[in-house]
Amino acid sequence: MANLIDYIVPIAILFFHSILVLLAVLLMAYFGIYGERKIWAAVQLRRGPNVVGPFGLLQSAADLIKLLFKEIIIPQEANKAIFILAPIITCFVALSAWAVIPFSEGWVVSDLNVGILYIIAISSLGVYGIIMGGWASNSKYPFMGAMRSAAQMVSYEISIGLVIITVLLCVGSLNLTNIVMAQRNIWFVFPLFPMFIIFFISALAETNRPPFDLPEAEAELVAGYQTEYSSSLFMLYFLGELAATFLMCAMITILFLGGWLPPFNIVPFTLIPGAVWFMLKVATIFFLFGMVKAIVPRYRYDQLMRLGWKVFLPISLFWVVLTASFLFIFNLMP
């Protein structure tokens, strides 16, 4: 009996922590939708959500109810099994990546020693759900959107990987907690500022955010890979995209902005819990994502590819070599 309890208790604790993280991500998605609408409205000098609930706070809940109760329509010629499975995979992959994200010191579901590799591997799988959805729809516009998304993610994952290598050279560990603790004296955004900019822009492209939302460009592809989706299946795609977007905001926070560490190690700042600092930084990056969508026009697809392969790739490669050389010459290797 004692041995059984020893097995059950850790599993129950892990399950409880997983539920808390899932609720945190869902709350971020809920208020993220509301916040983005308010940002776009402010930029365009209009009100945004202001009717459903106080200050329009229940608008996201109304949209959720609408999507849950609408009829699921599956095209007659679609591959029904894959059509239904595709958004489930996209949403599951985006949510499962949060298992290794530390919200504060010790506040993590699984503190893996190779956490950064887990993030790269899991986030790379999200494109499979998009490709499956575009192919299973049996329609040319969804399929073209899925192909665009595959090419776009492959192109910008290379730049993201090289930026992460630059950070790892300065830390000497693949553990996300160690990456945060290595920034106790100085956040990496200052010595690695060009890499911060490249990672920020690449994160927009990786998550199909404007101005790089070519896979679902309404002027060309109606709605891209999501064209034939409705109701809760569309909601799963939307939730997966939001979860992936917040994941990239969290990665920027961990890699460059000191994670849960306060900006100044003095009493008024250190009294605020680390999780609060972490969420404030994530919200700030998400605000910048929303501002980019509001003010930057969409790129052409050839411009998107040129930026990834001819600009970001050589710059990030050069910075990896420069960082490694600097650390080696001055004997600063961790």
Low confidence ranges: none
Number of strands: 0
Average of pLDDT: 87
Ends: how far apart? 46 Å
Q: Which bin fits the share of residues in helices?
A: 55-70%
Q: How big is the Rg?
A: 21 Å
- Overall shape: it is globular
What does this protein structure show overall?
- The protein is mainly alpha-helical and 334 residues long.
- The protein has helices spanning 2-43, 59-69, 80-96, 115-136, 140-171, 176-181, 193-206, 218-221, 231-256, 267-270, 274-295, 301-329.
- Helix 5 (140-171) runs antiparallel to helix 7 (193-206) and helix 5 runs parallel beside helix 12 (301-329).
- The longest helix is centred in the first third of the chain and has 42 residues, at 2-43.
- The N and C termini lie far apart (46 Å).
Task: Indicate the topology.
Elements: H1 2-43, H2 59-69, H3 80-96, H4 115-136, H5 140-171, H6 176-181, H7 193-206, H8 218-221, H9 231-256, H10 267-270, H11 274-295, H12 301-329
Helix pairs in contact: 1-9, 1-11, 2-9, 3-4, 3-9, 4-5, 5-7, 5-12, 7-9, 7-12, 9-11
Give a nutshell description of this structure.
With 334 residues, the protein is mainly alpha-helical.
List keywords for this structure.
334 residues; mainly alpha; 12 helices; 69% helix; globular
